[in-house]
From TrEMBL:
<protein>
    <submittedName>
        <fullName>Uncharacterized protein</fullName>
    </submittedName>
</protein>
<comment type="similarity">
    <text>Belongs to the PIERCE1 family.</text>
</comment>
<dbReference type="InterPro" id="IPR026507">
    <property type="entry name" value="PIRC1/2"/>
</dbReference>
<dbReference type="GO" id="GO:0005879">
    <property type="term" value="C:axonemal microtubule"/>
</dbReference>
<dbReference type="Pfam" id="PF14892">
    <property type="entry name" value="PIRC1_2"/>
</dbReference>
<keyword id="KW-0966">Cell projection</keyword>
<dbReference type="GO" id="GO:0035082">
    <property type="term" value="P:axoneme assembly"/>
</dbReference>
<keyword id="KW-0963">Cytoplasm</keyword>
<keyword id="KW-0206">Cytoskeleton</keyword>
């Protein structure tokens, strides 16, 4: 019962399935994830030399904590596939987004804050002759 799994075939089938699941309302930029550009950092040589330096000064558990990849550059080093793309889209129109920048904010509430100063400044109030 020990079957060898062909992961490449499994991945291709999953990509085909996700491409079929995507609705018609999904923008074309999400239908073609190959168009996304990412920058993969080549840190292989520097990581090896840095790892040797770290292992000589720290314990193995501390070195493992320091090399745990949780930075944004590590997450963004791989190109997205169709599996990571959304299958449904309910985004807003750009005209509404443009209109939101032109709205003036107004607060029509009561000013119930106490005055900060104990005495009124005579130069700020109305001057009498």
């Amino acid at each position: 019962m020990n079957k060898d799994i062909d992961y490449d075939e499994l991945e291709s089938r999953a990509k085909e399935l996700y491409a079929r699941i995507q609705g018609d309302d999904v923008p074309s930029r999400f239908r073609q994830p190959d168009n996304f550009s990412t920058q993969a950092l080549n840190l292989g040589a520097t990581n090896a030399s840095l790892k040797q330096a770290m292992l000589s000064t720290t314990t193995p558990t501390e070195a493992a904590k320091m090399f745990y990849s949780t930075t944004n550059s590590d997450y963004g080093s791989c190109d997205p596939s169709i599996i990571e793309m959304p299958t449904q889209w309910s985004g807003s129109k750009t005209t509404i987004s443009r209109m939101q920048n032109n709205i003036v904010y107004r607060y029509n509430g009561f000013n119930t804050e106490m005055d900060k100063e104990r005495f009124m400044d005579p130069y700020v109030t109305i001057r009498r002759k």
